[in-house]
Amino acid sequence: MTENVLEIKDLKVHFPIHIGTVKAIEGVSLDLGQGDVMGLVGESGCGKSTLGFSILRLLSTPGFFAGGSIKYHGRDILKMTESEVLDLRGKNIGMIFQDPLTSLNPLFKVGQQFVETIRTHESGLSKREATDRAAAMLECLGITTARLNEYPHQMSGGMRQRIMIGLALVLSPDVLIADEPTTSLDVIVGAQFLDLLKELQRQFNLSILLISHDLGVVAQLSDRITVMYGGRVAESGLVGQVFGNPLHPYTRGLLASIPNIRLDKPALETMPGNTPDLVNPPPGCVFHPRCPRVMDVCRRERPRTTGADEHLAACWLYS
Ligand code: SF4
Atom 7 in ligand 1: which residue has the minimum CA distance? Predict the structure, then answer.
């Protein structure tokens, strides 16, 4: 059993707006083990990116933590001081985003951005030493060090994404949060990037939270999967369990809607209905208005999370 680097318990994140309160995350629990890759999947608006930002306490206004805890090696991030959290970001937990062009500063050369990132956390390091460390990181990523003298706009999308991961890892964090890291890349560059991520994960024994709407991307890299719906965890388990024997009707719907060129299907399956209103979520099981197997109890009571051998589902079919 590996040690957990992250333990999220009963997390609630709310956003008060003029028509009520958006319950973006409503009681999510998950653990990330040392050296594990956890895929976090679900439709847009299910709360997966909010969860990623919550770990670094980067909620946009007016979001707030309405309950729960996020522990990094046993220390609750939600109880840390502002300066402790600033120190944690980058040094202990790195993050890469969907669009590297908007995440990198267009006004500074890549080398300057590396040096600033390094010296913000390690002020005793000289500019020369920080540059040397940046160059070593680039070599590790298979990028020539001459690129340190370039601006982000002089690079391709794939190269910028690799620079982003270099910036995220240059301080040697043990956790990486990757939020839709291949969405802005074409299929081939995206596949190369996933190979690189896999290699870096092995090399640095990184724990990765891989957030994606793309089940194919998640399947390639993850050891475990958590499926989110309506700000809650619908199902979780090892990749083989969730893909091989999906329990939750929502997970089954997601898997059935993936195109498969080997199957002779006339049309893709779709899930009826829309994602839930998180200001006034449906009572009981939040998925019940769209569920093909809905029962009376589903409309009244929130399902318990049950299962065996680490394969869990929040569904009355298994309670
Ligand atoms: Fe469907 Fe009921 Fe299970 Fe919800 S609890 S997924 S409505 S069967």
Answer: 288
pLDDT tens digits for 144-168?
999 999 999 999 888 898 899 999 9
303 lines ligand 1 (CB under 6 A): yes
User: Candidates 294, 297, 318: which one to mutate for ligand 1, based on the most atoms within 8 Å of Cβ?
Assistant: 294
> Domain tally for the chain?
1
Residue 290 Cα to ligand 1 midpoint, Å, equals 9
Residue 302: strand, helix, or coil: coil
Is the pLDDT at 189 greater than 90, yes or no? Answer: no
Q: Is residue 40 situated within a structural domain?
A: yes
Q: Report, as an integer, the average pLDDT of 12-40.
A: 96
pLDDT at 256: 87
Task: Between 175 and 271, name the one with better pLDDT.
Answer: 175
130: left (phi over 0), alpha (psi -120 to 50) or beta: alpha
Is 138 inside any structural domain?
no
CB proximity list for 90: less than 8 A, separation 6 or greater: 117, 120, 121, 168, 171, 173
CATH number at 311 reads 3.40.50.300
